[in-house]
Every structure is written in C-alpha cells, then in structure tokens.
Write a structure and sequence with these properties.
mainly alpha, globular
C-alpha cells in the first residue's frame, strides 16, 4: 500500500499534464490577487506594446509608443507581441478589462507550456531529479507566476528559447532540410518578438557550424537556416526603411536604452526626460533623430568616463543575477553557475547551448540598463541549471529515496 502510494506520487510529480495544470493554476491565482481598480496601473499605463496596439486598432498604424506622442511610425517595439495584443484589442476592445484578462490569461498558458518544456528538456539533457525540481519550481514559485502573466513579450520569448534548446540536438548531424528551415523560422520569429534573442541564436549557429566541421552538406544547412531567419526579418526591416528612412532590422531604441544607463546623474530610475515621463524632446526631434541624439549622448559619456562606465556595468552584472532585493535570486543564480560547471564537466557537447544562453543573453543589459523582469526569458535555463546543482549535491539521498518507490512486483523480480 505504501509503495503503491509512493509510486502514484512519483508518477504525478513526473507528469507533464500535472505540471502544466499546476503552473496554469498558480498563474491564474496570481492574477486574482490583483487589487481591484489597479489593472490599468499594473498592466496598461506604461505599456508600450499596448499603446502601439491601440494605435493599430484605432486606424493610426504602427505608431505612438508613448502617451502624448505624435501618431507617427515607430520601431520602438518589435511586431510579434504587438500584433498579438492588437488582435486581442480588436476582438475584445482596446484597453478593456476583457482584453486584459485574455492577454494575461494567454501569457499564463504560454508560461505553463514552458513548465512542460522545462520538464521534458531537463529529463533529456540533465536528469529526472533536476527536471522535476526545475519544472515544479517554475510552476509553483509565486515570483515566476507573477512575472510571467505580465502584459509583455517575456513569457513568449522564454518559450521560444526553450523551443530552440529542444530543437538543437535534432540538428546535430541532421541533413533534414525541414528541421533547419523550422529552426531558421523560429529564430526569425523569436527576433521579431525580442531582438535580444538573436544574441543567443547567432552563437547557436556558430556552434552548429563548428560541430559540423568538415561536413559540407551540414554547413549548407546552417547557412540555409540563417537565410530563412533573414527572410523572416526582411518584411519588417523593409517596412522600417520605408517609413523611417533608416536601416533598422527590428527596433531602433538601442541608443535610448544605452543612454538610460549611461548619463550624468544616472540612477536606477528612468530619467525625467524619458519619453514616457516627458516626451517633449522626442516630439521635437522625431523618433530617429531622438534615438540618435541619445546614442551620441551615451557614447560621449562613456568616452569621457570609462572607469565609471565599467563601475556601472559591474553593478548591472550584479543586479541582473540578483534582483529583486531580498529575494532568493542570488542563491538561485549562484547554484545555476555551479550547475553549469558541473554539467559541462559531465557532457560538454550537450550543455554548451545552455552555456551560450547564460553567457550571451545578458550582455546587452550589462552595457545598457537592467531590471529583474529582463531576466525572465532565460529563467527556465537558470532554474534547470540550479536544479541540476542541487540534484548533483543531493544525489545519494535521492537515489535512496527513489528506490523506495519501486513497485513491489519489480522489487520481487
């Protein structure tokens, strides 16, 4: 009886359906904790995606990322999540409560799917204990539940990166063109969701190229995959060139982001003349000239204060891995790096893509600015590696515990 109960519990813990349902339930429960009347403030008030989606459904085109700015073309935000939100606004009304619950509910479902991906990828690339620990942490941790339902692209970006990690072993040594085409399409869609993901996909291709050294056909597949990604990006890049008269592959706000973290009097808050707070300079110059002015301002600051820039960057490195304050993230991040080192020693070829994610994704935030929500797309990877470290440390005890769940019939044989 006891062994049977333990075996049933073991099966529940390892069930993708149970993990999905628990993750979804936690996210919907987190949404229910929203104080009445605060939905606008928490989800809509400072949301650039929602503002552009409103402009789209109002007939003004892809424009006006901030309030009190002209209804003129913009490339401040990438298009995938914006058009998704615009579709919801078209269906249920711009800035309506119904649209809010559909959008946040969709993010909850996307994040619950990520829980299943964590479980499956973890079993394949690490071990069952690490997979279960990471998946259940992602599912049940209230911090992750709240961060994932935010009306932003980060939950979708996290799912795209997990999908890429699921794909990569299928590409090693494969000459199946369909797989390579799909990977190129995935990279393009991920970039149009969040261009930061390209910092991961580009090294993925380099790694695949190195892995296929001496195999001409496989290298051709890598190049084909890159070409497909470029083709996916091309329509949006052409649109940006036509309406903004500048070659902008995805978005044009790097100069603004660089300036936010690198200017005189920099703090952890947005500057008072950030367009969301005071759009007068943005309105006067226009988007392209404004972004260029902020880029030049930031470069001048870095040039004249290189030591201070390094100090600010070091602080951003620390904040990226530890924010928010008084949370478990310093310990989780430390365990993740330990887990990465342990996993690389065990199976370098399988774990290199995880090292790429950990090393490359944060780079842009080290030199610009960072908030804890920026880390969300790679938090599944962080949790997997941290769970692997815990599992490796606790493996003897886990092995003993696991043996007690073996059914009696199997034990007898």
């Amino acid at each position: 009886m006891r062994a049977g109960l333990g075996h049933s519990l073991f099966r529940l813990v390892h069930s993708s359906r149970v993990v999905f349902l628990v993750a979804l339930t936690m996210r919907l429960w987190a949404l229910k904790q929203l104080p009445p009347g605060q939905a606008w403030h928490y989800f809509y008030q400072y949301n650039e995606f929602a503002r552009i989606a409103w402009a789209l459904v109002s007939g003004h085109g892809y424009s006006s990322p901030w309030v009190n700015t002209p209804l003129q073309p913009t490339a401040v935000e990438p298009p995938v999540y914006t058009f998704l939100l615009a579709g919801i606004f078209k269906l249920a009304g711009a800035y309506s409560d119904a649209s809010l619950w559909i959008g946040t509910g969709l993010n909850a479902v996307i994040s619950a799917c990520s829980a299943v991906m964590i479980l499956q990828i973890g079993k394949r690339d690490f071990n069952t204990s690490a997979a279960c620990l990471a998946a259940w942490t992602w599912s049940c941790w209230l911090y992750e539940a709240a961060a994932s339902v935010r009306l932003w692209e980060s939950s979708l970006s996290a799912l795209w990166l997990l999908t890429a990690l699921w794909f990569l072993p299928k590409l090693r040594g494969s000459l199946n063109p369909r797989r390579w085409l799909l990977f190129g399409m995935l990279a393009g869609v991920a970039a149009l969701t969040s261009p930061t993901t390209l910092a991961v996909f580009l090294p993925f291709w380099v790694w695949l190229w190195i892995r296929h050294r001496g195999q001409g056909s496989s290298k051709a597949m890598v190049l084909t995959s890159i070409a497909v990604c470029i083709l996916v990006l091309a329509p949006w890049t052409i649109r940006n060139y036509r309406v903004l008269h500048r070659l902008i592959p995805v978005r044009d706000n790097f100069g603004l982001e660089l300036w936010i973290g690198n200017h005189e009097g920099v703090s952890h808050q947005y500057p008072l003349d950030f367009p969301l707070l005071n759009p007068s300079e943005y309105n006067r110059l226009g988007e392209v000239a404004f972004m260029e002015s902020r880029r030049q301002w930031a470069i001048t600051f870095v040039t004249h204060h290189p030591g201070y820039f390094l100090q600010l960057s070091a602080r951003r490195v620390f904040l990226f891995w530890t924010a928010p304050d008084h949370s478990a993230w310093p310990l989780v991040s430390l365990l993740a790096w330990v887990g990465l080192l342990l996993a690389l020693r065990r199976d370098r070829a399988r774990v290199v893509p995880y090292a790429i994610v950990m090393a490359m994704f944060p780079l842009v935030y080290y030199v610009t600015h960072t908030f804890d929500t920026y880390r969300h797309p790679i938090e599944p990877v962080i949790l997997l590696l941290a769970a692997y470290a815990v599992a490796a440390i606790a493996e003897p005890a886990l092995q003993k515990r696991r043996s007690s769940f073996v059914p009696a019939s199997k034990a007898a044989t």
